[in-house]
Each structure stands twice: as C-alpha cells, then as structure tokens.
Amino acid sequence: MTSESASDNGLQARAAARLSAMPRGTAAVVLALGAAIAAAALLDALWLKDGALAWRTALFGVAGGALVLWLAVRHLRSPTFGAANTVTLVRGALTIVLLALLGIRAVEWWLVGLATLAAALDGVDGALARRRGEAGEFGARFDMETDALLILVLAALVWQNGKAGVWILLAGLLRYLFVGASVLLPWLGAALPPSRRRQAVCVVQIVSLIAALVPVVTQPASAALALAGLTILIWSFAVDVAYLARQARA
User: Fold this and answer.
1) 83-95: string of b/e by CB count within 10 Å (b at 16+)?
2) Which residues contact 140 (CB under 8 A, 6 or more apart)?
3) 202-223: per-residue pLDDT in tens?
4) Alpha-carbon torsion 137, 125, 217, 57, what sign?
5) 32 near 92, Cβ under 8 Å?
6) Listed residue (156, 43, 149, 31) closest to 96, CA to CA
7) 11-68: per-residue pLDDT in tens?
8) How far is CA 107 from the centre of its chain?
9) 139 contacts 84 by C-beta, under 8 angstroms
10) How many C-beta neighbours within 10 Å does residue 144 have?
C-alpha cells in the first residue's frame, strides 16, 4: 500500500468515525435544547412573566446546536460524541438560557444559580474526558469556546444590571478581539502551550462576574470585583501575546 492510499484510507476512517458519532451527538443536542427551553419556560412562568424567554432560548439554541454539530462533523475524531462533550453541551445550554435573559433586568438568586451551575460543570467535562480517554482537539476547543461565550454573556449581564460600567464588556470581548487580531497578525494565531495559569484565570474571571451578580453585592463592591477579574484576564492575555511575539521573532 502506498503512503498516498494509506493517507486516503486514514481520512476515510476518520470521516466515518465522525459521522457515526452524529446520531448520538444530535440526540444530545436535542435533549440539551429541550431542557434549556423547559428551564426558560419555567423561569418565565414563575418569575419573569416576559412571555418570550422560551422563544429566544429556542432560537439561540437551534443556532448554537447546528454550529456544534457542523463543527463535530468536521473535527470530531471519536466514533462517539462522548460523555465529556455532552457535559460541555449542558454548559452551553445553560449559557444559552443566560444569553436569552439579556434585555431583562433581573438580578435574582436563580440567575446566580444558573451561572454557578454552568461554571461548576466546567471542571466536570475535563475530568470526564481524561478518565474516559475522550480528550481531543474538538472537545478542548468546544470547552474553550463555551467558556468564552459564558464570560461574554456574564459580562453583558453585569453591565445590564448596573453592577459595573460598560468597560466590563471587554472581559467578554478580549477572546474575540484576540482571534480577530490574528487575521491581521498571523503570528498571533500560532499554537499556545497548555497552561494552568490560563485555566485558573478563566475560573477567576467567571467567579468574579458571578460574584458581581449576587443580589446583595452592590456598587461599588460589584464594580471592584468585576475590575479585579478583568485586570487579571488582561494580564493573562498580555503574557500569551508576549510569548507569541518571542516565538515569532525566534
């Protein structure tokens, strides 16, 4: 067998594995979306009386679920969707509910509870992936982008509810500004080594935003908490940019 045919066979095998994972992945997406819509409808009926929260959750959820499945078809190399990715999907569904809450000024304990549950599950998917041998490029990227969206949504909720100024949106936009800058400066798109510092800063940022949303935490304490998390996040990005700059010069 030539190296070219072996490569073709390998590509076909990976494509078949990705496609075989799709039925379970689709089922997981549908279940997560259904649970998110049900949770939104319950919140709406018991507390918000908004009337449109479930529809907004469904709209955002369908778009997000379709994106996840499309990326899984392209990048997932496992024959199953995986328990770890399913947990990340649940985190994504919770984030979608929080996203649907934008435009509704309501700082309540249930809002903090939803955000806390989404944050707490962040440690579960990684542990599951390592224990079950499901760690891979797709899962790591799925986890990272879910974290990025959660931070953006939490930052917007903090601003919306008057817990900090508009500057807190930078916490959620930094990741996307970094990716956008890599289009103009390709050296920013180089791979970064795994970093415990980066993981810890992500946790600190999420926790600081959730703490700022706690109903009993008011200005200026809420703004101070948000600013502390943002400062640490900016420092972490600066460390990574400096590393990539040194690599580019080398």
Assistant:
1) bbbbbbbbbbbbb
2) none
3) 999 999 999 999 999 999 999 9
4) positive
5) yes
6) 149
7) 555 555 555 556 667 888 888 989 999 999 998 888 888 788 899 999 999 999 999 9
8) 21
9) yes
10) 15
